[in-house]
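---------- Forwarded message ----------

FYI, see the NAD(P)-binding domain-containing protein record below. Original note from H. follows.
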Amino acid sequence: MTDLVSLKKYRKCLILRSVTWDYRHINDVMHVAVIGATGATGRQVVQQSLTRKWSVTVIVRNQDSFKDIVDENLKVIVGDVYDTTSLRGAFQGCDAVLSCLGPRGLSNLLPWANVDIYSEPLRCTVQAMNNTHGLNRLVLLTGACTKASPQNPFLFEWVLKPIIRAPVADMVRAEDFLESEECANINYTVAKPKNLTDGPMTEIDLVTAEGQYAEGPSFISRADVAKFMLNCVEKETWKRKLVAISVP
């Protein structure tokens, strides 16, 4: 009789634990931090994340920059992407970080410009992630054909890159840093699109290729790039990879 009572209690305990796990699993909400959220691609990442009912924390210099987006799942934090302590505070409770930083203004695209918007904030981001419990997923936006490759089209390699060599060089510094020992604990994905447009999101699957270049048109919408970045987080794909993306 005692054994029967014990068995019933044990079964009840298992059922309760199972129900609790299912409840948490079903109600688990992705929480992402977005850096570079005020840019055109960053806003796409934020808006699409909110559409997926994710919790979103954006780190901005000016809180007024997100007055036009009102959502109970959006948290706006004033911070500095060049400051590790500032980022660490913003990353608390997050499951992943998405970085859409990039140079602003034509002066930062000139060959002699001093550009560090990719590499230096990335170092601070990784340091903050390494000091945030349970946070190691990072998706970084750079660009296609940053490094020489036989697959790179002539136009990209010999015409476009020399013109914008300053930001491209900083993209390379960022990518090299992610592949270094300092980032051994970071599950990164580097999204490498071609020229960005403000066109709509497409419903077709993107062309993806590990490395520098993916076959396809020279333009891709920011909406499609944002969708790819979020899918990498949601589906846990392309970990520790540099991925060129394109529309078919």
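H. also flagged this: The chain has seven helices and ten strands.
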